[in-house]
Write a structure and sequence with these properties.
Elements: H1 3-34, H2 38-89
Length: 90
């Protein structure tokens, strides 16, 4: 390479580095402010676990209620059948 081509390339490289350093610093500060801190992540995780625990409890209660309802439905069906048998005997 000739001296003029090399000096032009060096000039472009210097310009690129001089412009990119402040831009990269700005981007790094922006990214640092947009990410959650460890405390925020812990708080969010704890809140999610509490919500899941409440949901699991509600699901278990619903399942228990469904079992109770099924048992009561069987008892009601049995009573209705007995009443029908008694009514047909009359």
């Amino acid at each position: 390479m000739s001296d003029s081509t090399q000096s032009r390339a060096t000039g472009w490289l210097e310009l690129i580095f001089k412009l990119s350093v402040p831009v990269l610093i700005g981007v790094s500060f922006y990214l640092n402010t947009t990410f959650a801190s460890k405390e925020e992540v812990r708080a969010l995780t704890k809140a999610q676990e509490e919500r899941f625990t409440k949901s699991e409890t509600a699901i278990l209660l619903l399942a228990k209620d469904n079992e109770t309802n099924a048992r009561q439905d069987k008892v009601l069906d049995d009573h209705e059948q007995r009443i029908r048998v008694l009514e047909t005997k009359r």
